[in-house]
Design goal:
99 residues, five-stranded antiparallel beta sheet, Jelly Rolls, four-stranded antiparallel beta sheet, mainly beta, 57% strand, single chain
Length: 99
């Protein structure tokens, strides 16, 4: 997978980046960079992307107001960044292994 990039300026969610759950191993690395004043959370879903992403879960350790990185070692079907407050920008870059 090429690096996928989504960003969100101001409060709200970025678009979701669909993941390929048919690769082995399913390993996803990601990083968030911030500019300006922003508080964000990285979220993932297990919903079928063909039906739509409706239920989101927050990553257990990647959130806040500073640049950070993390990973998913277990399959998820989509990843996004949620800006909880602020008027800055949170940019999420994702790379999935095996593609």
């Amino acid at each position: 997978m090429k690096v996928q990039t989504v960003s969100k300026t101001g409060v709200g969610s970025s678009t979701a980046v669909p993941m390929n759950t048919n690769v082995t191993p399913f390993n996803v690395g990601f990083g968030v960079t911030v500019s300006g004043n922003v508080d964000y959370t990285v979220q993932h879903t297990f919903d079928d992307p063909g039906v739509g992403f409706t239920t989101w879960f927050s990553h257990p350790s990647v959130s806040g107001s500073a640049d950070d990185d993390g990973n998913y070692a277990f399959p998820v079907t989509g990843v996004k960044v949620l800006v909880n407050s602020g008027d800055g920008t949170a940019t999420l870059k994702i790379v999935q292994a095996g593609i």
